[in-house]
# Entry
Amino acid sequence: MFRPIALLGLATLPLLTSAAAQTKSGHPADHLPPHITRLTWLGERPDWRHDGKRFAFVSKVFGDVYEYELATGRTTSLSDHFLHYGFTRVQYLSNGDLLLVGPGSSFDRTSKEDRKRARHEIGLLQVLQKPFDKPPVSLGVEVDEGPAVARHQLRIAWTHGAQDKISVGDLVYENGVPKLANTRLVLDAAKFPQPVRMIETQSFIPPDDRAITMSAYQLNKTNNTDTYRLDLETGALKNLTNSPDFYDEPEGIFPDGKFTTVEHGSSLKSAWPLIDIYKLALDGSGKLQRLTHFTDFAGWKASQSVVSDDGQKMLFQIGKAGDEAGQGYGVFLLDLTQVPASP
# Structure
């Protein structure tokens, strides 16, 4: 049963975000604080390997998959040895294999409409198995945007093509071949407690993976996007941001399950504002801590954050106003142990 929840934390969010920074000229990467380092000059949607020594990323929207080694700075292609139509997501499974999302058939890359179709209608979940020397295996499931991947077990959740339903399933290997099992529908947007344009999965909440963070876009026919907690066993929904004048989309979760990162920005003028990365408490208080300041520079944003398994490091990307969703121009490393306290 899905239940509407009380509006919590409304006083907290404006307090942290009402003082808009003066817009600066230049490039954010030329003015980085000591705890942020640029690692690459291309690429997007990074994901940590579980030992924290490497991360995977895609080179561009519908691009190739690469792995970056932090100790050496070496970048290795993982997808140039097989035919494919490009990828939009890469995420490490708990066993070290990679879960990929990419179109399963050809499309016109020069067409805006066809690129939209490739992203939202023909994206397939695929598994690239270690040592990454063979083509990936399709799981036979179409997915819209990115799936949620459990840290400690072979379980995933994904959003259906119309972004109106979410399912969950277990990944099993039969004679070495990955497949989905125990799949079930866990949320239908038609049963959401208030009108919503679309929904999307994000992260399993550790340590028990019995719930996920997810986003609900343009609630009540407004510009508002909020972060929710969905209980996978009961179907209960809890609004974690309750921020009617802000865009709050969850990204990488902290390993203690007490915090997540969110993409946060004012939605007063646009449903898709320029955003920076904040740390959000998952206790329902709506408390935020700002982690990046890329929107201080005209036309730039920080997005697609992911937190390492030790909770000490965060990867994210830089983006520009007017870009295709998720498009990035390089990966940055943020030392979470050195983030200055919020004023």
In short: Residues 112-120 form the longest helix (9 residues). DSSP finds two helices and 24 strands in the chain. The longest strand covers residues 177-188.
